[in-house]
Design brief:
- The chain has one helix and ten strands.
- The protein is α+β, with helices and mostly antiparallel strands and about 180 residues long.
- The protein has two domains: about 35 residues; about 130 residues, Rieske Iron-sulfur Protein (3-layer Sandwich), CATH 2.102.10.
- The strands form three sheets. The chain has a four-stranded antiparallel β-sheet with strand order 5-6-7-8, with no helix packed on it. Strands 1-10-9 form a three-stranded antiparallel β-sheet, with no helix packed on it. Strands 2-3-4 form a three-stranded antiparallel β-sheet, with no helix packed on it.
- It is elongated.
- It starts with 8 loop residues before the first helix and ends in a 22-residue tail after the last strand.
- Bound molecules: FE2/S2 (inorganic) cluster.
- The site of FE2/S2 (inorganic) cluster has 11 residues, from loops.
């Protein structure tokens, strides 16, 4: 007579199968749920509105345009150096600054500043911009995008959280973005 407390081989494999499937389901579900809740759980909902330091104003001589970098406010532990984002800082005089996105307003290639000619040049399709960021020539339909910035206690900070697109709200790309024409 079979012992009723003994589990059959079929029953054992069924239980192991259910357990294994459960583990796989959890392993798949956890990253999906974390992704869906990420904007809440990481407190990044308003990260694009945060002010990010660029450096002391004394680091930017009057009348010059210099390259600077900042930490993208959307930083995640695995991002490493990729969150260091470049921008061009133009100090007009005193506390008057312009901070330009490094990306060309055409298709996003990084533009370079040439002090000798007083132009930003894009290496991809020949787009050019004047020192104030306005369009000079080439395929871009507008000037360089500008970060909103402020100067407080000798420190310049920018609002850098939103990636620029031609359709971005004017509030986040500067009140008077330099436009073509
Ligand atoms: S990406 Fe700059 S001109 Fe096309």
């Amino acid at each position: 007579m079979p012992d009723e407390n003994l589990i059959s081989r079929r029953g054992l494999f069924t239980k192991i199968g259910v357990l294994f499937n459960g583990l796989v389901a959890v392993a798949i579900a956890v990253p999906i749920v974390r992704f869906l809740l990420s904007s809440i759980t990481r407190g990044r909902g308003n990260a694009y509105l945060s002010w990010v330091p660029l450096g002391r104003t004394s680091e930017f001589p009057e009348g010059e345009t210099r390259l600077a970098t900042f930490r993208n406010p959307y930083v995640m532990p695995t991002d490493g150096k990729t969150v260091d984002t470049a921008c061009w800082v133009r100090r007009i005089e005193g506390d008057q600054f312009q901070v330009f996105a490094i990306n060309c307003a055409h298709l996003g290639c990084p533009v370079r500043w040439f002090a000798q000619s007083g132009l930003f040049m894009c290496p991809c399709h020949g787009g050019a911009y004047y020192r104030d960021g306005s369009r000079a020539s080439g395929p871009p339909e507008r000037g360089l995008f500008e970060y909103p910035h402020k100067v407080e206690n000798g420190l310049i900070t920018i609002q850098a959280g939103e990636l620029f697109t031609p359709g971005a709200s004017a509030a986040l790309i500067g009140k008077n973005p330099p436009c073509a024409g």
